[in-house]
Amino acid sequence: MPELVVVVGGTSGIGLATAQRLVDGGREVVVVGRDGTKLAAALDQLGKNARGHALDARDQTAMTAMFAELGAVDHVVVTVTGPSGMTPFASMPLSHVQDHVDGKLVTHIGVAQAALPVLRKDGSITFVSAISSGGAMPGTAALAAVNASVEAIVPVLAVELRPVRVNAVSPGVIATPWWDFLPADVRAETFEGFASGTPAGRVGQPSDVAHAIGFLIDNSFTTGVVLRVDGGAQLGVVA
């Protein structure tokens, strides 16, 4: 029997690329997303080895019921991003912070808890944080706090939930719909600026992150790791 992987937030961007890589590698994939239309399009793309559930990952009761219905699960990947956009700290309402906490941190924790009763002991949980966790980019205080929190729980859970493996991928700037809050021309200019500041000389693609997630699922001797996939952005460019 092929392994069963649940990808939460798998209807676009990194989640969809991950689901595609897993399907192409012979696994069965369950894609979870809020938008039924996007879910249907994702399943059409992924083919017969994928199925889906249209539900809100923030609803832990619904997530628990879904996992109970699925039965034994080999791996869980949580790619939910929370709100997009950047907000200056001085004018940032606390509701904006709460939206990020609920939309990402609480969701990642809730999905992991919902999966535990059916997750195989030799399985894994992979979270997706972001490079903002260790960056200093103005306007990303809420993003930085939430992504750093996601990364902080990885080693704790890797020990507490052993032998289940717990890891995270921390992407840099990736060309996904998260950036759609910017007009197309501004987005292109922003990407160009980020690309010029990395040794890799480009922004990332969802497939780059999917490849890293695939590694963390496949490698049974890797746990408690936050794997950076940022084109070397944190290194800077040496002239």
TL;DR?
This is NAD(P)-dependent dehydrogenase (Short-subunit alcohol dehydrogenase family). The chain has 239 residues and is of the alpha/beta class. It is 43% helix and 18% strand.
Walk me through the structure.
Helices cover 43% and strands 18% of the residues. It has 239 residues and is α/β, with parallel strands linked by helices. It has a single domain, classed as NAD(P)-binding Rossmann-like Domain (Rossmann fold). A seven-stranded parallel sheet has the order 3-2-1-4-5-6-7, sandwiched between helices. Strand 4, helix 4 and strand 5 form a beta-alpha-beta unit. InterPro entries: NAD(P)-bd_dom_sf (IPR036291), SDR_DHRS6-like (IPR051122), SDR_fam (IPR002347).
Q: Might you state the CATH topology name?
A: Rossmann fold
| Shape assignment | globular
CATH architecture: 3-Layer(aba) Sandwich
Main sheet properties: 7 strands, parallel
Please provide the ordered H/E string of secondary-structure elements. Answer: EHEHEHEHEHEHHE
The name of the CATH superfamily reads: NAD(P)-binding Rossmann-like Domain
Structural class computed from helices and strand pairing: alpha/beta
**Whole-Å distance between the termini?**
52 Å
How many strand elements? 7
